[in-house]
Amino acid sequence: MRLPVLVFDIETWTDLKSGAHLYGLDLPEADLEQALMKLRRQESGMDFQRLPLHEIVCISGLWIDETGLMTLFSFSREQYTEAEILKKFLSIFDKRHPTLVSWNGSQFDLPVILYRAMYHGLSAPSLFDQGEIDTQKRYNNYQNRYHQRHIDLMDVMAMFNGRNFQKLDDMAHLLGFPGKRGEAGYHVPEYIRAGEWLKLTSYCEGDVLNTWLIYLRWLLLKGQLQLDDHRLWVQTTIQYLSSLPQHGEFLAAWRQNAQATDFTAADFPSSTL
């Protein structure tokens, strides 16, 4: 494993102001969302908005440094504007050049970050340079799907074939990890409107943690981690989560789901149940 590693995920909702501007709508805010959804269905047959209209409300990450120290963090709209969230996240790449790990980050998270950073007039050459500034990035940058600087697990596990794409939740459950922990549906807008910021950040961080656990299993498959090292990283993760009360539910769901597969069940010996 090439350290440092940054596993990340974003949460978004529809940017009503930009949507009204794009489509020339003059409607009360209460009617805008439905109008934009109807227009999107007419355009594409689906509710999922075009990427530039996804306003970022949270970016979560798990940082693992060269010593193996883990830090789970979130930048959310509870404390920051969207532009401030982006500045904080993008500044990481100005200082360090981590291995970036995501689930569907190539098709969703990074393009949304690109569009929204442009919307706010931000610069992020450390993340988006493809060799124009640093010639070494011609051969290993964060955008090229076949490079190792950004590993989109959904993409690489599908062997770069869209017909093989799997959902993060499904893969997490299959491997004995928590997944969404019974969360049915997409609740991000509800959390924001109700000011339930801890639920929002815990939801986003849960996706980050599931992605990290799948990444460890992926490295084991590829021989980039030996079995003993894999077990050590898993136990380090369990110990770290034990120190985070907000993720007690995640840890409990992991302990329960692990029993569904023989390999993952070994993460929680019977003496710890």
Explain what this protein looks like in three dimensions:
The chain has 273 residues and is an alpha/beta fold. It has one domain: Nucleotidyltransferase, domain 5, CATH 3.30.420.10. 48% of the residues lie in helices and 13% in strands. The protein contains 12 helices and 5 strands. The protein has helices at residues 16-23, 29-44, 82-95, 105-119, 125-128, 153-157, 168-174, 188-193, 197-222, 227-242, 248-258, 262-265; strands spanning 5-14, 54-64, 70-76, 99-102, 150-152. A 5-stranded mixed beta sheet has the order 3-2-1-4-5, sandwiched between helices. Residues 47-254 form the Predicted 3'-5' exonuclease PolB-like domain. One of its GO terms (molecular function) is nucleic acid binding.
